[in-house]
Amino acid sequence: MLFLGTGTSHGVPMIGCACAVCRSTDPRDKRLRPSILVDVPTHAKILVDTGPDLRQQALTHDVTRIDAVVFTHSHADHIMGLDEIRRFNVLQGGPIPCYANAPTWEALRHTFRYIFGGAVQLGGGIPRLDAHDLTGPLTIKGVRVVPVPLWHGKMPVLGFRFGDFAYLTDCNRLDDDAWALIEGIDTLVIDALRQKPHVTHFNLDEALEVIERVKPRRAYTTHMTHDLSHAATNARLPEGVELAYDGLVLDVRVDVE
Ligand SMILES: [Zn+2]
Ligand SMILES: [Zn+2]
Ligand SMILES: [Zn+2]
User: Fold this and answer.
1) What's the whole-model pTM score?
2) Which residues contact 232 (CB under 8 A, 6 or more apart)?
3) According to the model, what pLDDT value does residue 117 have?
4) CA 172 to centroid of ligand 1, rounded, Å
């Protein structure tokens, strides 16, 4: 899997901020909005979320095909790149299968009214999506995808488990069923917004508590603000825990049919 973006909703650097991390020349301190690509050779390239930086992320990493999109939730930093799907429609000659739960579809239909029948004139075209309701574990072109219900403040959202790997962005609480669904994973990616507590995201200490409980072989934090300098924060993390960064590639074992 590839980290397309590991930043919080503002991205890092943040507009108009002159702090040390926003001005850092370390490329790992440049964080686009959060998204990953799970690329399973011979099976499927699955994109998690269509953030506002999708175009730039696809160009940077030469992503020229997307077999499916799965959505975690409908916050702007996870959906605002949906219009970029138009290019993949042209490249692939058809609609792109998209999977989201009912509240996320409702928000997508509202936010992107022009895609769902509200356009006066098509102009440059509209994204063509094959909309699927995400109600439980599913198989996308032979790749097993298990949604993991998470709490993002008061909002129920989804993380995803692919085989031995789980991606849990935008959360600050797990219920018993979620803990059970991620048992025994090898690689965990977990929301760690910043140092200070927050009402809808795990902070770094809370993320470390989750990691301590799950005990994966390795863990990576994501959705980070400019509070967390890559090099300085990494240096004080426990063994096996690192900050993710844009462009980081991890080999993970997924379940395939
Ligand atoms: Zn800053
Ligand atoms: Zn969110
Ligand atoms: Zn977010």
Assistant:
1) 0.97
2) none
3) 81
4) 23
